[in-house]
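B., you asked whether I could sanity-check this one before it goes into the benchmark set. Here's the sequence:
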Amino acid sequence: MFERLRRSLSALGLLESRCPACGLLQDGPARLCPVCAERLAPRRGGYCPGCGALAQDPGLPPLLCLQCSAEPRPWDRLYFHGPYEGLLRDLILRYKFARSLGLGRLLQELALNAFRPGREPLPEVLVPVPLHPWRLLWRGYNQSLELARLLSRRAGVPLAARALRRVRRTTPQTRVPGHRRRENIRDAFVADPAQVGGRRVLLVDDVLTTGATLEEGARTLKRAGAARVEVLVLAKTP
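And here's what the prediction gave me:
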């Protein structure tokens, strides 16, 4: 009976949906089509959990690289969905700069999959990388905050949207040469000890490039008393 009903609804086009990544029309509920699902498969291994450096073999377990072993990053662990290339890069660029806000749900799911809530111990608070108020006014939304919302709901971890604030207006990092990005972002943040002091914090952003912004954010959180700072991004530049 249910199969006949499904076929009838399908024949009427009532069970059709589109792939949220490429828009391909398909039968059944909204989900990634097989091609996009393969292109957006998460990177489970073959990377450094400190800086995200990629090994040639994705089948290797996550292992600290020599540089992170000698000079650890200011965060305690990095999580990311995949390399910043191909379809993942296209989706992030469309979401950030082409105002394709409908992609938000898909990107939230990818971030959630990268973090895999349920592991122990969970963070005690989620903190998005903030935008300066003028930048927020220009863009209209903070993509890092939007990515953190679903994680907060699914993992049951409080979202502290104002725990880290940007107090100095800086040149966007994408316009600054890599070797000057740390200088550009220095002292751009302040953190609220009342919200992060003694807590395990998950710092959320969209892309890790040189890491300058996330490093400054992690240092600021630890200066405010955070007991542990982990970082979650959608993508890591190769």
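One thing to flag: The chain has ten helices and nine strands. Otherwise nothing jumped out at me.
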